[in-house]
Amino acid sequence: MSDKFTPTSKEELLARAEAVAGLSLAGLAQRLDIAMPSNSTQGKGFVGQLLELWLGATAGSLPQPDFQQLGIELKTIPINAQAKPIESTYVSIVPLRDIAGLSWEQSDIYKKLQHILWIPILTEKGLAIGERIIGSPILWQPSPQQAVILQQDWEELMDMVAMGEIEHITARLGTYLQIRPKGANASALTQAIGPEGESIMTLPRGFYLRTCFTQQILMEASHINSI
DNA sequence: GTCTGATCATTT
DNA sequence: AAATGATCAGAC
Q1: Is the C-beta of residue A201 closer than 7 Å to nucleic acid chain B?
Q2: Rounded distance between C-alpha atoms, residue A148 and residue A155, angstroms
Q3: pLDDT at A124
Q4: CATH number of domain containing A82
Q5: A137 strand B contact, CB < 7 Å
């Protein structure tokens, strides 16, 4: 039943995603002969991995788009019954060293944000993880206006990193993009640039998309779908 | 430790 | 209630 699948076109990928819209996570897990985690705390990441398996994502833990041949990144996004995102969306790790001369277009996050397959997951709290429902997929690319803001956010934040101001960066900065801790726990440390240009140890950080931004994406898509 | 996949727990 | 800062699970 769990025959392997590799998408060779975005149309094929989208069709494969549409085929499981309306299905519960437990339903898809059963189809793939995968065991469900007992709860959503232990199951962090399970939703994404389940859809990766179904859709034939290949990038593994590389900092590259999931479907390398197609240049498409896969993102599941938890939404409530009003179709509002429940959580921000992690995109990629923030480079904290050897970043001199790094441009927006060269960055890992730029490549991932060029083309995303969004899969909304209906995730009301109190709903068991297996009862979450897979929604209709959205194939998205940033509009020119969105691209400008994303680049501005990235440049503002990465300027601070390059200037040794990582410890002054909070999640309050950035219009669409924000930087937050992204590590196993508070004792996981990595090297970064300090105030005097020296090497310091700090928490690993990640780039996240704010819910106000991902909500835009979902709203635009529902508008298109309703025409 | 460095990435991927995210959601949890606490503060605001 | 929503946002921020912290954490969970797994591959390598």
Answers
A1: no
A2: 11
A3: 87
A4: 3.40.600.10
A5: no
